[in-house]
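Progress note, sequence design subtask.
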């Protein structure tokens, strides 16, 4: 009530800029073609298995002006004391609603992060298991190769002994 017209207009201009910035932020909060915080925003759906039957869904939250959670309207001003009091009430309600929406988005984000951690650890375990199988197969192949090499050497040695016997007999006749 103690503000003059120039001060009230200056505050109204600041309020209008901040109000319009909410619209800009909400409309530009898009990633990969999905906007979770705009009017009619898309929910985030993450598939958690091969067949696609299990999913994690993070619901969209309407944070646009005059939407479900932000009670400040796109045309709201604080030009008068009555409008300012109404704006304060709307801002308080909006803060509570936005905190609830952020809590819902945060818990969805945590679920997605837990799933990602689980999948990463599962992938690492599978990779280690495959590595162990490959190592076991390589060890078996190496043992088989060594066995065949020993057989080959024994075969060559047996042939050498067999070829020496006739020359020993011939040496007796000399």
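Output:
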């Amino acid at each position: 009530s103690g503000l003059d017209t120039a001060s009230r207009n200056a505050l109204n201009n600041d309020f209008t800029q901040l109000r319009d910035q909410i619209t800009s932020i909400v409309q530009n909060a898009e990633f990969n073609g999905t906007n979770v915080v705009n009017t009619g925003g898309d929910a985030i759906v993450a598939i958690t298995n091969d067949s696609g039957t299990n999913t994690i869904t993070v619901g969209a939250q309407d944070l646009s002006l005059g939407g479900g959670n932000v009670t400040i309207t796109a045309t709201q001003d604080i030009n008068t004391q009555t409008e300012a009091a109404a704006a304060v009430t709307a801002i308080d309600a909006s803060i509570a609603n936005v905190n609830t929406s952020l809590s819902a988005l945060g818990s969805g984000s945590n679920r997605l992060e837990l799933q990602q951690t689980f999948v990463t650890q599962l992938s690492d375990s599978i990779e280690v298991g495959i590595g162990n199988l490959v190592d076991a197969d390589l060890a078996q192949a190496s043992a088989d190769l060594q066995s065949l090499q020993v057989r080959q050497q024994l075969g060559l040695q047996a042939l050498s002994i067999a070829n020496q016997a006739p020359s020993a007999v011939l040496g007796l006749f000399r």
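The radius of gyration is 39 Å. Work on this subtask will continue into the next period as scheduled.
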